[in-house]
Amino acid sequence: MEEKVQDQSWMEQAIKEAEKAEDLGEVPIGCVIVYRDQVIGRGYNQREITQQSSAHAEMIAIKEACDDIGSWRLEECTLYVTLEPCPMCAGAIVQSRIPRVVYGAPDPKAGCAGTLMNLLEEHRFNHRCYVQADVLHDECRNLLTTFFRQLRKEKKKKSQSTDDVK
User: Fold this and answer.
1) Catalytic annotation on 58?
2) Which member of 58, 64, 75, 76 is catalytic?
3) Domains identified in the chain and CATH numbers
4) What are the pLDDT digits (tens) for 11-61?
5) Where, in this chain's numbering, is Zn(2+) bound (predicted)?
6) Is 125:95 a contact under the CB 8 Å cutoff?
């Protein structure tokens, strides 16, 4: 029970990171990496503002965590992310030897922690992660749903105003 409460608390931190992305017009995905009950890496999506395809929340948090402990091996860490990791992020998680990954909402389009495939628990790799899914699922999913609903609304409004000019 205590682990569940802790997972929810750390996921709330990841949600705060996702909200930073949303404030910038980025897809609201956030991540924190925890080592010995301390956040050592934080990240949120920054693809649009940096125009870098690798500027995902997990990639930014992994870099920060590695810098913090001075090693590429994050062997005693847990990664919390609001959306299931994509193939690139799952690969970076495996490469950095993170033993445990906790995510909020599944990603039906790119999820590689069990939805489309499971790179994190792939037995052919030299490292596998324990995966815990659906922590604060509704909160994480609602962040994304609300963001994309608003984006579609704005796009429709823009399209209608363009039609009015014609």
Assistant:
1) yes
2) 58
3) 1-164 (3.40.140.10)
4) 999 999 999 999 999 999 999 999 999 999 999 999 999 999 999 999 999
5) 56, 86, 89
6) no
22-27 LR contacts (CB < 8 Å, sep 24+)? 22/143, 22/147, 24/48, 24/49, 27/144, 27/147
Give SS3 for 38.
strand
- The helix or strand, by DSSP H or E, that contains position 86, with its residue range, turns out to be none
In the numeric block, the tokens 């860490």 are attached to 77
- The rounded distance, in Å, linking the Cα atoms of 94 and 108 is 21
Q: What H or E segment, with its residue span, contains residue 69? A: helix 57-69
**Is 120 a residue whose pLDDT tops 90?**
yes
151 has a pLDDT exceeding 70: yes
Handedness of CA 133, 139, 140, 141 (dihedral sign): positive
Q: Please tell me whether the overall predicted TM-score, pTM, comes out greater than 0.85 for this model.
A: yes
| Annotated binding-site ranges for Zn(2+) | 56, 86, 89
Task: Kindly write down the DSSP assignment for every residue of 119-157, as one continuous string.
Answer: STT-TTSS---EEE--TTHHHHHHHHHHHHHHHHHHHHH
pLDDT at 166 over 60: no
Predicted pLDDT at 157: 79
